[in-house]
Amino acid sequence: MTKLLKGKPVADDLLNQVKKFAKNNQLKMAIIQIGDDSASSWYRRFKIKTAKKLNIETIDYQFGKDENEDKIIKTIRQLNTDSEVNGIFLEQPIIGDFNRNNIVESISGDKDIDGITEKNCGKLYLNREGLFPATAKSIIKILDFYNIKIKGKRIVIVGRSNIVGKPVAFLFMHRHGTITICHSRTKNLDKVVKEGEIVVAAVGKAKLIGEEFISENAVVIDAGYNLEGDNVYGDVDFENAKTKAKAITPVPNGVGKVTTAMIFNNLVQAYKYQNDK
Ligand code: NDP
């Protein structure tokens, strides 16, 4: 029978650890939104709500799409030097005519709890300790939580974005998985994906990965989150793929559930870096 890899128990486990840590250590997170992307606004508010439950302080910055870039960078630099602020989360996408790199790279690597700066990307590449993207870490965490081995497995990842596909590929490689990364120019996608003992979908196309892409005994991790009207779909055609896969994450209540918890886990990690714990 197909095992359902639900995100909630994984997220609860992470959040309990964060809560315990936050009891003895005052954590503070700055959240910055630039422009008015509705999904980002929702995620920003959700983080603030979750932080409150965990006894974590937040500072909320909302800049308009016409804000002066230097002013935003100056604010970020002040947060970098503020010893009470442990983590800085920049909501993406950034809306407006900004040089994204200038803004992202103004975040101190030690406070970059979304793992988006060159410093942390470099650390991930080199397999050093660092702050890495929460969704990528969540995918690995789910597999570990459900005791699914990575070492030696053939891993097929669909998607090569900087925030999901690429970082998760490095995390898998450092755990001795054998990696194939697919993207929009991959030929015979179905055949390539079918070779995966673990399949990760991070595409942004509802139900793209059908049952015919999945081999018997594959473990399927769906990072996709596609809103269609009132419904949310993953990148995997869940209803059909689940008849084939050995294990599969649902959408919603799969990877997404773990991602927010992982951001707070990154905040704890950042606090420890800053306080030598
Ligand atoms: P991006 O749009 O940045 O990247 C999508 C990737 O999918 C690209 O590498 C693209 O290829 C590839 N792709 C697009 N179409 C196809 C296709 N037909 N066949 C094969 N590959 C294709 O998306 P993100 O990585 O930011 O997000 C991916 C999904 O994950 C989305 O559904 C998003 O909502 C979700 N997400 C979920 C999070 C969570 O916490 N659960 C957090 C972040 C994202 P190419 O590079 O060639 O263009």
TrEMBL record:
Q: Which residues form a coiled coil?
A: none
Q: Where is the Tetrahydrofolate dehydrogenase/cyclohydrolase catalytic domain?
A: 5-114
Recorded hits in InterPro entries, A to Z, give:
Aminoacid_DH-like_N_sf (IPR046346), NAD(P)-bd_dom_sf (IPR036291), THF_DH/CycHdrlase (IPR000672), THF_DH/CycHdrlase_cat_dom (IPR020630), THF_DH/CycHdrlase_NAD-bd_dom (IPR020631)
Q: So what does this thing catalyse?
A: (6R)-5,10-methylene-5,6,7,8-tetrahydrofolate + NADP(+) = (6R)-5,10-methenyltetrahydrofolate + NADPH; (6R)-5,10-methenyltetrahydrofolate + H2O = (6R)-10-formyltetrahydrofolate + H(+)
In its keyword annotation, does this UniProt entry include Ribosomal protein? no
Subunit-structure text: Homodimer.
Q: What is this protein called?
A: Bifunctional protein FolD
Q: Which GO terms describe its biological process?
A: L-histidine biosynthetic process; methionine biosynthetic process; purine nucleotide biosynthetic process; tetrahydrofolate interconversion
User: Could you tell me the EC number(s) of this protein?
Assistant: 1.5.1.5, 3.5.4.9
Q: Which residues form the Tetrahydrofolate dehydrogenase/cyclohydrolase NAD(P)-binding domain?
A: 133-274
Molecular function as annotated in GO: methenyltetrahydrofolate cyclohydrolase activity; methylenetetrahydrofolate dehydrogenase (NADP+) activity
| Stated role | Catalyzes the oxidation of 5,10-methylenetetrahydrofolate to 5,10-methenyltetrahydrofolate and then the hydrolysis of 5,10-methenyltetrahydrofolate to 10-formyltetrahydrofolate.
Tell me yes or no: is S-adenosyl-L-methionine among this UniProt entry's keywords: no
Identify the HAMAP family for this entry: THF_DHG_CYH
Q: Which residues bind NADP(+)?
A: 159-161
Q: Which family does the UniProt entry place this protein in? A: Belongs to the tetrahydrofolate dehydrogenase/cyclohydrolase family.
Alphabetical GO CC annotations of the entry are: cytosol
Kindly tell me the pathway this chain contributes to.
One-carbon metabolism; tetrahydrofolate interconversion
Q: Which keywords accompany this UniProt record?
A: Amino-acid biosynthesis, Histidine biosynthesis, Hydrolase, Methionine biosynthesis, Multifunctional enzyme, NADP, One-carbon metabolism, Oxidoreductase, Purine biosynthesis
The protein's matches in Gene3D superfamilies, at most eight in alphabetical order, are given as: Leucine Dehydrogenase, chain A, domain 1 (3.40.50.10860), NAD(P)-binding Rossmann-like Domain (3.40.50.720)
